[in-house]
Specification:
The complex is a heterodimer.
Chain A: E1 6-10, H1 16-19, E2 28-32, H2 41-50, E3 53-56, H3 70-82, E4 87-91, E5 94-97, E6 100-106, H4 112-129, E7 133-136, H5 150-158, E8 163-168, H6 169-179, H7 183-188, E9 195-200, E10 202-206, E11 209-216, H8 220-232, E12 237-240, H9 249-263
Parallel strand pairs in A: 1-2, 1-12, 2-3, 3-4, 4-7, 7-8, 8-9, 9-12
Antiparallel strand pairs in A: 5-6, 10-11
Chain B: H1 4-15, H2 17-25, H3 27-32, H4 38-45, H5 49-70, H6 72-78, H7 82-92, H8 100-114, H9 121-130, E1 136-141, E2 151-158, E3 161-168
Antiparallel strand pairs in B: 1-2, 2-3
Helix pairs in contact in B: 1-2, 1-4, 2-5, 5-8, 7-8, 8-9
The chains are: A alpha/beta, B alpha+beta.
């Protein structure tokens, strides 16, 4: 019998009032850390009191050379603490380097030095929060070369203590279509059980390419890929990551049901 | 050693379209200007300049999407020029920190103002207030829609987030909706 994980969604301002009442079909919430840096303690604690939470960073920039930004890490850890979070999540990426802050996620070259850097930063996040760390694969127009394949890099990262993969199924699919590789082959290269959590949301299109714009309902091919991933791993949580064009509660619950059904967790 | 210095070089390229153009024309020369290791230089030179441009554009597009959500009235007033004007602004300004999107939006409004282009006063008031330490603000916005006279914009912060109201003075124009 397949072990059932939690199915939840990203906490968004437009859903806050609805979620505050406690929704039975929402097993868990993912809090984007930066959205709560200016929130008061009570607001964060109230969410954590109702739902199992993960805290998802956008700005720790684990791929940036040098130490993590102390202030950002402290703010991230505060949100995690107040939310009584179970997991700390971030990205295999960088958003800033040197005096440049690009503000969004960019790929790191899959090299031994970047593996060491990301490992060191993941451990720093674990030490600051006391939580298991989950690192997410990103989309990129750039397919950076390096000393190893992306999956090899991710497997090596997950071999470090307290680290697992947050597999973004949509990001995988977008990259696979744009860079013309088979997402199932990529999935099969991951060591079993490295995938600890998953993200899913519908993709968009622009100028003939797929984009991760987080604004569309989940397409069937993504649900197929999600189910394939869940066959080889035992995800502790699957998160619907809708950021834009967020529908009302009935549609959100319907999306979660589709995810539940695709996973066989109904 | 391959890795961290390459990340720095990549960040420079992604933030500087002039540098990207130079890289597309002569990647070896541009890679050489970064003082990278031989291994990093080889990796950088193998990078597809078209993909690099697409990644840079994706970053700007994401910024533009966030700003458009924050200043939809200004964006609508710019019409077909909106994306191009935003790219002009984005080429010279990179916001930082967790408030980057509202900072970017406010900086964009100021850019438009400096260049004599249309922008929305209500959206500017809203952003300035929310990026300040203020917990409330009252401001005057010019005619909105078909309301004949300026309106008072009132905003205040509660434990559940920001609230705002527009208090219209005087009559509305013919055929207008009663609620703005």
């Amino acid at each position: 019998m397949r072990r059932r994980g939690l199915i939840g969604l990203g906490h968004r301002p437009g859903l806050a009032r609805w979620l505050s009442s406690g929704i039975a079909d929402v097993d868990c919430l993912e809090l984007t850390a930066e959205h709560f840096f200016d929130a008061d303690d009570g607001t964060i604690a109230a969410i954590g009191a109702r739902y199992p939470c993960s805290v998802h960073g956008l700005g720790l920039s684990l791929g940036t050379p040098g130490p993590l930004d102390d202030e950002v890490l402290e703010q991230y850890a505060r949100v995690a603490r107040l939310a009584n979070a179970r997991w700390a999540t971030e990205h295999v990426a960088f958003t800033r380097a040197g005096d440049v802050d690009l503000g969004h996620l960019n790929p790191v070259a899959p090299t031994a030095d970047n593996l060491a850097l990301l490992s060191e930063h993941a451990q720093a996040v674990h030490e600051a929060t006391g939580l298991p760390v989950r690192l997410e694969n990103i989309t990129s127009e750039l397919a950076l070369g390096g000393e190893m394949r992306e999956t090899e890099f991710l497997n090596a990262l997950c071999a470090r203590p307290h680290v697992g993969l947050l597999l973004d199924v949509t990001n995988l699919y977008v990259n696979a279509r744009n860079h013309r590789f088979d997402p199932r082959t990529w999935l099969n290269e991951l060591e079993p059980d490295n995938v600890k959590q998953m993200h899913i949301v519908g993709y968009g299109t622009r100028d003939g390419r797929l984009v991760d714009d987080h604004r569309a309902p989940i397409q069937p091919e993504l649900l197929d890929l999600l189910a394939a991933a869940a066959e080889r791993h035992a995800p502790e949580a699957v998160i619907l990551e809708r950021d834009l064009n967020v529908p009302g509660p009935p549609e959100i619950l319907a999306e979660l049901s589709r995810v539940r059904y695709a996973l066989g967790w109904a | 050693m391959a890795g961290p210095d390459l990340t720095l070089a990549l960040a420079r390229l992604l933030s500087d379209r002039t540098l990207r153009s130079a890289f597309a024309a002569d990647p070896i020369r541009v890679a050489g200007s970064f003082s990278l290791s031989d291994a990093d230089t080889r990796l950088l030179c193998r990078m597809d300049s078209k993909a690099l441009e697409q990644q840079a554009q994706a970053l700007v597009d994401k910024r533009a999407g966030e700003v458009r959500r924050l200043v939809p009235r200004t964006w609508a007033r710019l019409g077909a020029d909106a994306s191009g004007r935003f790219e002009d602004h984005a080429a010279a300004y990179w916001p930082a920190g967790h408030r980057r999107h509202p900072q970017d939006a406010l900086a964009f409004l100021r850019f438009l103002s400096r260049h004599g282009l249309p922008w929305d006063r209500l959206e500017r008031l809203r952003l300035e207030t929310r990026l300040s330490r203020r917990r409330r603000r009252v401001g005057v916005v010019p005619r909105i829609g078909r309301w004949h006279l300026p309106a008072l914009y009132v905003t205040w912060r509660t434990s559940h987030g920001w609230r705002e109201r527009l208090l219209h003075l005087g009559p509305i124009g013919p055929g207008a909706r009663r609620r703005a």
